[in-house]
Amino acid sequence: MRKSIARKIKAKRRVSPNVIGTEKRPRINVFRSNLYLFVQAINDDKKQTLVAYSTRHVQKEKEYKKITKTKQAFVLGERLAEKLLNLKINEAVFDRSCYIYKGRVKAVAEGLRLAKIKI
């Protein structure tokens, strides 16, 4: 196995088991690819995804076609927060998975916080 993959697996095993989502306080899981960012709100008790959103949805909107990936991630956090607030969810647990808390991952968390989701 390549070193980079082994490092990701090791980091995920260290971070993710300590983060558990419930119905009132779901787990916000982040997956980052080279092009897109995918975010899900997950209820681990029922093993159910409550809300899912990605930067692909953000790019379809006209006003956000030509912005940087980090700004798209910030908008993604705001849009996810709107959907969570529609479900009457005000708190969440942030699961960064194997990714370092900076750049696009941090922008998602800041977007959620700006839209009044307590992380």
From TrEMBL:
Keyword terms, alphabetized: Ribonucleoprotein, Ribosomal protein
One of the record's GO cellular component terms: cytosolic large ribosomal subunit
InterPro entries: Ribosomal_L18, Ribosomal_uL18_bac/plant/anim
UniProt GO molecular function: 5S rRNA binding; structural constituent of ribosome
Any one GO biological process: translation
SUPFAM superfamilies registered for this protein in UniProt: Translational machinery components (SSF53137)
Pfam family for this entry, one: Ribosomal_L18p
Similarity field: Belongs to the universal ribosomal protein uL18 family.
Listed PANTHER family: 39S RIBOSOMAL PROTEIN L18, MITOCHONDRIAL, LARGE RIBOSOMAL SUBUNIT PROTEIN UL18M
Name assigned to this protein: 50S ribosomal protein L18
Organism: Candidatus Roizmanbacteria bacterium CG2_30_33_16
